[in-house]
């Protein structure tokens, strides 16, 4: 299982330490949440902070843009050091154009769906995506209770991908812990975003290892 620890749950006064923890762990990437206070009711970090993270990161940056009209920020996300730019389907008027511009900028495109957004919204764009992120909670805050319907949604997306012979990865963000992770893996998830489970653990490196070895 690939693990993408979310820095949103880290101590922001010791963010460099959190990145170092991820660097020496079995994590596959680093999940960075960007919030604008409009698409979600919270504001997180900006591009100077992402650049600072990228300067010390030894893992690819998985940048999750919880912002309105994310096409405006493609060049800034690229210049900040992102490997994957993940945009919300609900925030894009012309999703096809956004995905193409992300690819043209040299990043891997990914799309996120909120809990109530149906999978059918991705039917046309799915072959062009590196990854689909399914939210296991409503976006904007860490530490929320997992929405159980996410398990079935992962399984249905897995079927869509496999039936079309695609290599698109399934990522899940929100409510990932020792209880939900095995069930998400069984349903077909490839990547787990974990925030509170990692950074509230006594040993974050061991917590990441636990998730990485779930199959």
Structure description:
This protein has 215 residues and is of the alpha/beta class. It has eight helices and eight strands. The chain has helices at 15-23, 47-56, 74-80, 95-104, 149-163, 180-187, 196-199, 204-212; strands at 2-5, 30-35, 61-66, 84-88, 108-113, 131-135, 169-173, 191-194. It is globular and about 40 Å long.
What order do the helices and strands come in, and which of them pair?
Blueprint: E1 2-5, H1 15-23, E2 30-35, H2 47-56, E3 61-66, H3 74-80, E4 84-88, H4 95-104, E5 108-113, E6 131-135, H5 149-163, E7 169-173, H6 180-187, E8 191-194, H7 196-199, H8 204-212
Parallel strand pairs: 1-8, 2-3, 3-4, 4-5, 5-6, 6-7, 7-8
Helix content: 25-40%
What pattern of helices and strands is seen along the backbone? Answer: EHEHEHEHEEHEHEHH
Content of β-strand: 15-25%
Mass-distribution shape: globular
Summarize model confidence as the mean pLDDT.
96
* Secondary structure category: alpha/beta
């Amino acid at each position: 299982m690939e693990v993408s620890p979310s820095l949103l749950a880290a101590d922001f006064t010791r963010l460099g330490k959190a990145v170092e923890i991820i660097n020496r762990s079995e994590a596959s990437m680093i999940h960075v949440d960007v919030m604008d206070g409009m698409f979600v009711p919270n504001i997180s970090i900006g591009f100077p902070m992402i650049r600072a993270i990228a300067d010390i990161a030894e893992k690819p940056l998985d940048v999750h843009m919880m912002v309105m009209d994310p096409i405006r920020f493609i060049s800034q996300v690229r210049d900040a050091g992102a490997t994957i730019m993940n945009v919300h389907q609900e925030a894009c008027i012309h999703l096809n154009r956004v995905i193409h511009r992300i690819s043209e900028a040299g990043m891997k495109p990914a799309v996120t769906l909120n809990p109530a957004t149906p999978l059918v919204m991705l039917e046309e764009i799915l072959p062009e995506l590196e990854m689909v992120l399914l939210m296991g909670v409503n976006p904007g805050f860490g530490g929320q209770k997992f929405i159980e319907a996410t398990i079935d949604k992962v399984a249905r997306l897995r079927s869509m991908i496999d039936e079309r012979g695609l290599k698109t990865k399934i990522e899940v963000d929100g409510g990932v812990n020792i209880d939900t992770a095995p069930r998400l893996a069984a349903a077909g998830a490839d990547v787990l975003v974990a925030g509170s489970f990692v950074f509230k653990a006594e040993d974050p490196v061991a917590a990441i290892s636990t998730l990485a070895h779930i199959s």
